[in-house]
Design brief:
The protein contains 3 helices and 8 strands. The protein is an alpha+beta fold and 128 residues long. Strand 6 and strand 7 form a beta hairpin. The mean pLDDT is 90. Bound molecules: iron/sulfur cluster (2 copies). The site of one iron/sulfur cluster has 15 residues, from helix 3.
Amino acid sequence: MKAWLTFSPSIVNKTVISNLVKTYDIEFNILRADITPQGGKMLIEIGGTQQEQAIKFMEKEGIHLNPIKKVVKKDEEKCIDCGACISLCPVKAICPTRDWTVEVDNELCIGCGFCTYSCPTRAIKVTE
Ligand code: SF4
Ligand code: SF4
């Protein structure tokens, strides 16, 4: 599961994430992070058998978790494989293939919607 974590200033200096990884049998991958002493956000991917317990632990410690449920769909009829959407993707979820067609990897996509602004044929959309 991918999710945004929101940190308030009061928990920025706490060792919540390291305690989480030590306590639970989870896979915890940080995809993006923007945290200052004033608080911030972290984009994570979490997996493993104790995922639910780990999420409860974070929420109990005051970290707000917002799961990402959005996916990107590309209309193959409308897409002209121009590649304009590729450079806008902050997580490199859109790539050219060997035959120069453009593919979206929804495992990487964070649903930000940046790619949709660039498409000249409106072939790419973010959906729930
Ligand atoms: S919605 Fe955002 S993350 Fe997903 S493919 Fe488009 S630009 Fe990349
Ligand atoms: S910008 Fe639109 S037309 Fe161009 S490659 Fe991306 S989805 Fe296809």
